[in-house]
Every structure is written in C-alpha cells, then in structure tokens.
Amino acid sequence: PVMLARRRMTALGLLLALLALTAAVPRQQTGDPAGQAGVVVRFAEDQVATFCVTLDEPEITGYDLLQRTGLALEVSEVNLGAAVCRLAETGCPAGDCFCQCRGADCQYWSYWHQVDGDWVYSAAGAGLYRVQAG
After folding, report:
1. What's the distance, CA 117 to chain centroid?
2. Domain ranges of the chain
3. Which among 55, 51, 50, 47 has a CA at the least distance from the CA of 24?
4. 94: which residues sit within 8 A by CB, 6+ positions away?
5. What pLDDT digit, counting tens, does each position of 92-104 carry?
6. Phi, psi of 25, deg, nearest 5
7. Could you tell me which of 120, 44, 123 has the C-alpha nearest to residue 87?
8. What CATH number labels 2-132?
9. Which of 43, 64, 90, 133 has the fewest CB atoms within 10 Å, measured from its CB?
10. Long-range contacts at 110-114 (CB < 8 A, ≥ 24 apart)
C-alpha cells in the first residue's frame, strides 16, 4: 500500500512538479550581496525545467521564488496559503485546483526540498517555506 500511495503521488507523468530548493548554505561575503537559489520543475517523467534565481534579499518564500522563474502560474488561496494549480500549461484551473485528484490516481502539484542530496516531500507549502541563497 505504501508503494502504491507513493506511485500515486510521485508518478505524475502529467502533473507532478518537484519544486526543489537547494539547502540553505552560508555564502562567503563578497562585494556582491546577491545570492542564488535553484528551482526544479518536473512536468512529466521526461520533461524537467531548471532555474537559477538571483536573490537580492536574505530570504524569500518558496512561492516568491517560483514566481521569479517566469513560468505562468495559477494558484488558489487555501487555509495555509496558495495552492499551485497550474504551472505553464500543466495542471488545473485556479477555480478547480484539484481537478485531477478525484480518483485512484490523484495528481497535483507538490512541493519538495532537497535535503542531503535526497528529495523530501514538504508538508508545508511554498508560501510558508523560507528560502535562502545556497
């Protein structure tokens, strides 16, 4: 059952995005205060987009970081912040954010972090997670 549930959540050939932020790592102080954070979006098994976003501030939310990729983004406001409904042309409209989550194969945008080289599902959404350059 665990493997099946994992497949339903991770084998999202049409929808799953892995929004991964590099771990917060202190950077050396230089004359340039800007840092960078990485974003990885997985649209399908064989379609992955990566972004390196410059940060001019000490930290931002994962949601703000996602917005800075320039991808078209549709969200729905929920109790704990914004739920990502559609990135680029992939996903559901904002009015029905979980339109592909009504049966055994629940497909939705999920938020992940890279921790010690492994992808870890985040219980907190992108709007709650604080990102630092690293």
Report:
1. 16
2. 2-132
3. 55
4. 74, 75, 76, 85, 86
5. 999 898 899 888 8
6. -125, 130
7. 44
8. 2.170.130
9. 64
10. 110/9, 110/16, 110/17, 110/18, 111/19, 111/62, 111/84, 112/18, 112/19, 112/20, 113/20, 113/21, 113/23, 114/20, 114/21, 114/22, 114/23
SS3 32: coil
Question: pLDDT band at 33, cuts 50/70/90?
Answer: low
68-81 pLDDT tens trace: 999 999 999 877 77
Tokens of 129: 């997670």
Q: Is the pLDDT of residue 27 over 60?
A: no
Q: Tokens 């989550």 — which residue? A: 101
